[in-house]
Design goal:
alpha/beta; 6-stranded mixed β-sheet; Rossmann fold; 7-stranded mixed β-sheet; 13 helices; 15 strands
Amino acid sequence: MTIEQKTIAATGNGIVAEAYRQIEPDVICAYPITPQTTIVEDFAKFVAAGKVRTEFVTVESEHSSMSACIGSAAAGARTFTATSSQGLALMNEELYVASGLRLPIVMVNANRALSAPINIHGDHSDAMGARDTGWVIFFAENAQEAYDHTVIAPRIAEENLLPVMPTLDGFITTHAITRCELADDAAVKDFVGPYHPAHTLLDVDPIMVGGFANLGNTYMKIKQAQRTANDGALASIKRIADEWAGLTGRPYDHVEGYGLEDAELVIVIMGSAAGNARAVAREMRADGKKVGILKVRCYRPFPTAELASALAGAKAVAVMDRSDSFGSYAGPLALDTMTALFAHDLHPQMRRYIYGLGGADVKLDYFRKVYADLEASLSGASDPGLTYLGTD
């Protein structure tokens, strides 16, 4: 059964705000920061116009925003927020509290570079700073994916008792107007359903929240349970995404391939630049080249088995990171990809790239160069090491 949808022109931020309106969380605690601002700005207008009954809490900082969200979620309210860049970094301390307390908070992040130097444009450095905080993290290629990720996020969060962070790339996706399909309000409300937390701070039966675990192995047991929940969430994410796909006709697997049925040269990528990469791959396949793209949509928990299966036939793989992991062998996505391949005894030729930091242009020629480098690898060329694209 499919649901009624209407085609609209919307920015990524605008359609995320529409998803927030349709879900109508109990509480939103938020602070504005570029390029996220218009998400909470638009939602504040919905509150002021009486279109939602959400309690909108304005705070003095992003640290305060997440602190307020933690209190709200612990009290049993369906709680949302949104942030970006330095804001996400400022609330880093509280991200661990939210996940450690197993609070199903939803927070959309508008991916943006971190200072210094100051830069307000999009890359993945901020989200990667949160990759080990215990949150489920999605990367959207476009506004439609950002909307759909936001709609499925509360179901995932509440079923697994994990906070969820859908992300979209700053300005490229947050502010560009594109064609989107907006689902019927009632259908979204029905899909998300009501929230009935099993335990809250307002229960008359006592529960312990934020206890002191300083002796023995209690802390390790709690972290082990958190790890188990994160790893186990992959199946839940797939089932909920499949349910949404059945209603909308838009499938959402953990990874999405193009040309992988016979591809020998494959680029692994996340976010908005996947479309650029796919355009080049389509052009090269028309010329008879066996190239492909693997887009990672669900980054945390990392879909190790799915990624390895998708890359099983590749002879050479390039991983393109829109952030760096300073002092390590490669960028974050490359490190996860290589680990997944090693774990499944797959050993293609590997190349590692950093691109598009601080909103730097992502040119089609970059992808042509990457494919040329992969061809050279198969011909015996040595690996030049981690390569920054566009700085020459």
